[in-house]
Amino acid sequence: MTQVVLSEIHGKVGLIRINRPEALNALNDAVVDGIAAAIDAFEADDHIGCIVLTGNEKAFAAGADIGFMKDFDYMHAYRTDFITRNWERIKTARKPVIAAVAGFALGGGCEMAMMCDMIFAADTARFGQPEIRLGTLPGAGGTQRLPRAVGKAKAMDLCLTARMMDAQEAEKAGLVARIVPADQLLDVTLDAARTIASFSLPAVMMIKESINRAFESSLNEGLLFERRAFHAAFAMEDQKEGMAAFMEKRKPAFKNR
Ligand code: HXC
Q: CA 218 to CA 229: how far, in whole Å?
């Protein structure tokens, strides 16, 4: 049987590839369980400092698998906690997760990319929330994360008309951190991930946690969270090392402590 999720280690970076090319990487439980298991493994591995989630050149993921869920009834979806049980593992990752998107990122695929901490897009990437066409709605965070990323007007437009947005529009709207030529997508994303993984892991985690607070609290609460994290960073050996290395004009040797 083909493995629908592949994971590889590139130095300090964990790479997860969705591997259902025959179905444009449509997401069923096997795929999402596989992604969750790979994240579990990379989170537990002290040598990994950053995670990259990608698909193939045609699709990051063209959505939740329609055949898989079409006959679900309410009780099944509720009892199995569809979406929440395994999809949300991306959201709870403490190490940064970068989505490297080429081709289609539609429906649950777009939502999964948005669960990651940032999106690097190939110039071939196309984003959309076409669930309206299926008589349903984005159910993995699309109605909440998309407006936070691109604003209400564009989120309404995309979710209500089902149109797709290309990489340029997505970058201009704030959904995407960088656009990269398709043949360089993985190299550029792995490079950025390696840079992140070269820094102090606890500092990286505190920054990620603090930025995410911006979406979950008032400005004052978010600022207080950031200030406390900043104060706490003075307890880290890596802060002492980072600042000493700057003063001594040398490279820091972080110990993730
Ligand atoms: C299951 C899918 C799929 C999906 C594509 N395929 N998307 N199978 N679920 N979401 C399968 C097709 O059935 C086909 O299989 C193969 O992948 C290739 O797709 P084609 O349609 O032949 O390719 P193309 O003509 O290039 O069109 C590409 C496409 C189209 C525009 C992306 O496939 C499409 O519209 N897909 C559905 C997109 C969508 O509606 N996504 C949202 C799903 S709902 P065969 O066997 O025929 O070769 C959702 C809900 C999220 O995500 C809520 C919570 C998870």
A: 17
**Ligand 1 neighbour 207 (Cβ under 6 A):** no
Q: What is the 64 CA–ligand 1 centroid distance (Å)?
A: 8
Q: Is 14 in the pocket of ligand 1 (CB under 6 A)?
A: no
The Cα 32–Cα 87 span in angstroms is 6
List residues with catalytic annotation.
64, 108, 111, 131
Q: 115 C-alpha vs ligand 1 centroid, how far in Å?
A: 20
Measure the CA–CA gap between 247 and 242, rounded to whole angstroms.
9
> What confidence tens digit (pLDDT) does each residue in 5-53 have?
999 999 999 999 999 999 999 999 999 999 999 999 999 999 999 999 9
Q: Which amino acid would we find at residue 244?
A: A
pLDDT, one tens digit per residue, over 140-163 is 999 999 999 999 999 999 999 999
